[in-house]
């Protein structure tokens, strides 16, 4: 059994969306609604709106939208059930005991936690048990890297034997089925149908979530004879790589307001994090085998307002740093850079210069922009005119990406001093490049908006490109019904699912119809959005907040648009379509609605 409609309605009613959103985003009053800069994309002008009356949110910039459950799913990077459970806990509403879906999901997750924990204990035993000599090479490797036994125990480090099926056999003996092991990404199946261990001959790093559950693993070879060097668990029902960080379970207690550290140190690898923690810098975390993601940036922003990048100093590290700086800028996290000098990574820096020197560097880390300019300056021989011009141009291009004109000018002055050039020439060049970038951004935005209007690239409703005018009318009809569900009784005899040419429109109408014709008298959009993806929920919010929804003569307008949709569909069925006729069909009502709505101001 799924969550009952009555339970979901209670969740939505008892969790005021304005109050919930304000836990994450500072809201400001804007008429009858609240507004803010969107937490899901970067913007300077607020386009994120919250309506307590309609109990929905919508971003007019990135199309995020939905109800309070959708918001928690996006802001917490979690699934539907977990979002409902969190809101139930906040509102002190007990989960129905007979809710089989929640119970089944909870049992499955719990089972995965158990299997991962058992595997972590097995790997750790392989590494630390003197009776298991195969792990000695891995232990020697860690000791050469100056990792202490206490650190090995603290992080639960382990070793996966080189055998093809040691772990699989061990876990099977303890009652875990091979399907469960495969789901946890601990084993795989060969072409011959045999089950084999996924991790073999590797130093193992358990990945632990903030609640203390082992959710995945990373494995490193002890030399370069086997590739890839690092192997990581793929996504499972208990683990999403893009939404977790290595050592966050420790770092979350070490950084933030009132703590010893006011930042996270973001590293590229497991060993860097372990070395930093061993040195007392317990605010270090790492992305999991990939460059930092937008979800990870948002996750970090919940704990700290500043991040210090401690990436490798090679070209790949610099590229990763550029991407990370962009993502953190979008979520409002200040970016600094740890100056590692001639060391290639934090681990090597500690072994070369010691903990104290690293802490000194951490007290005054370089700003990202300053570090970027220094890196460009070092790349070119400024004694040669050609190289000097390249260095100046590359630096100006980097500064042109900064949105703040004041910040651009401050760094522009420093750049002029560095290259011994007139300030006016440097600032003029930066201003020109910034203007070109902004012009291109505006052009891309306009072109994107036009393509969006025409339906190109619409993944939620791909039929928009094929039937643009019909989809426009479908959305007005659905918007009226979703806002004024009691009108359904007036039009149920003239409105049929086959009237909707788009599959998305048909889906929303059928969900609405099913909800209205059920025994539940009180319709709420939460009844249908539980069946939708986040993108689909966002589109429903957009439909409900469209300026095309009338505020007067609503019933008459609804009937008019149903008839207009019928006419529109017949036009699309013709072989020789008159597109001018299609474009004008129903427009009299549409222009009238917009004019009337504008008299009342811009509303959500």
Labels describing this entry:
604 residues, alpha+beta, DNA Primase, Chain A, 5 domains, five-stranded antiparallel beta sheet, 16 strands, globular
Task: Provide a descriptive summary of the structure in words.
This protein has 27 helices and 16 strands. The protein is an alpha+beta fold. It folds into five domains: 87 residues, DNA Primase, Chain A, CATH 3.90.580; 125 residues, DNA primase DNAg catalytic core, N-terminal domain (Alpha-Beta Complex), CATH 3.90.980.10; 112 residues, Dna Topoisomerase Vi A Subunit, Chain: A, domain 2 (3-Layer(aba) Sandwich); 75 residues, no CATH class; 138 residues, Orthogonal Bundle (DNAb Helicase, Chain A), CATH 1.10.860. Strands 1-2-3-4-5 form a five-stranded antiparallel beta sheet. Strand 14, helix 13 and strand 15 form a beta-alpha-beta unit.
Question: Summary?
Answer:
This protein is an alpha+beta fold and 604 residues long. It has 27 helices and 16 strands.
Mean pLDDT across all amino acids: 85
- Which regions contain 5 or more consecutive residues with pLDDT less than 50? 575-586
CATH topology grouping of the largest domain: DNAb Helicase, Chain A
Helix content: 40-55%
Oligomer: single chain
Kindly state the number of beta strands: 16
Shape label: globular
Q: Strand arrangement, largest sheet?
A: 1-2-3-4-5
- The end-to-end span amounts to 35 Å
Which class do the helix and strand fractions yield? Answer: alpha+beta
Report the sheet-strand fraction. Answer: 5-15%
Task: Determine the number of helices (DSSP H or I, runs of at least 4 residues).
Answer: 27
Question: What's the CATH C level of the largest domain?
Answer: Mainly Alpha
Gyration radius, to the nearest Å?
A: 29 Å
Number of domains: 5
Assigned CATH architecture of the largest domain = Orthogonal Bundle
Could you describe the largest sheet, including whether it forms a barrel? 5 strands, antiparallel
